[in-house]
Design brief:
Blueprint: E1 2-4, H1 26-42, E2 55-57, E3 66-67, E4 83-88, E5 93-97, E6 104-106, H2 125-134, H3 148-154, H4 168-177, E7 191-197, E8 204-209, E9 214-219, E10 223-225, E11 229-231
Antiparallel strand pairs: 1-2, 2-3, 4-5, 5-11, 6-10, 7-8, 8-9
């Protein structure tokens, strides 16, 4: 929840003075001071130094609003209502996973060369997903109703539509930071599909068994669980 207030406060050292040294906006000081005092009764306490516009935000898992940005923690709820499994910048940014699986599907594009979907690094899932979708694999190259990348890309939660299929490295963090801590209702059987394909291969891609965290290469036409993620 985001509430935006414009608070105009005038301090003594900011008062504009005329040629004889009298304050031009002395009345404004009184008016703004009274307004600020009223706001302070219903709003969170203002920071001591305010040199820019600020917003009041009700962060996930918090009972009271605050000034400024939300800071997220691994294992907690993300801005879209997902499960945070990776953070940067002191919790200002990171990656969250959908709270639930979105069925099972295949990687797709069996026997088709897909350029740009090889990375296993954390942060590369979105690039991989876009590369898979750009491959345009349909009909003879897809053995199920839809491919995992498309399911993740089409997923929406609480109005957020920027989801993608996680890379192998991102799956690894989901396993260690969520599954192993019994967060997220992950399946204890089968495998989870990553967006990372095997290098120099047009028939296999990477997946991970969430029963033990094992990385496995599978044929692209085999099914696995789909868990979308998004960056924030």
């Amino acid at each position: 929840l985001l509430l935006i207030f414009t608070v105009s406060s005038v301090f003594a050292d900011q008062v504009e003075k005329n040629e004889i040294g009298q304050a031009r906006n002395a009345a404004a000081i009184v008016i703004n001071t009274k307004t600020l005092q009223k706001l302070q009764k219903i709003l969170p306490e203002l920071p001591e130094v305010v040199d820019q516009d600020m917003a009041i935000i009700l962060c996930p898992e918090k009972d009271t609003p605050q000034w400024g940005e939300c800071l997220y923690e691994v294992g907690g709820t993300g801005p879209a209502g997902g499960l945070v499994f990776y953070t940067t910048d002191g919790g200002r940014h990171g990656i969250e996973a959908s709270p639930t699986d979105q069925g099972q599907s295949e990687w797709g594009c069996y026997t088709v060369e897909v350029a740009g979907a090889e990375s296993q690094e954390v942060g590369s899932g979105k690039t991989n997903t876009n590369a898979i979708l750009d491959g345009g694999c349909v009909q003879d190259y897809v053995y199920s109703g839809d491919i995992a990348a498309r399911i993740a890309y089409d997923y929406t939660l609480n109005g957020f539509e920027d989801w993608y299929l996680p890379s192998l490295g991102e799956l690894g963090l989901m396993y260690s930071e969520l599954r192993e801590k019994k967060i997220g209702d992950f399946a204890g059987y089968g495998r989870y599909i990553s967006s990372s394909q095997q290098e120099e291969s047009n028939i296999r891609s990477w997946a991970m068994r969430f029963s033990n965290g094992l990385e496995v290469l599978i044929y692209r036409n085999l099914h696995g669980h789909v868990r979308p993620v998004r960056s924030f």
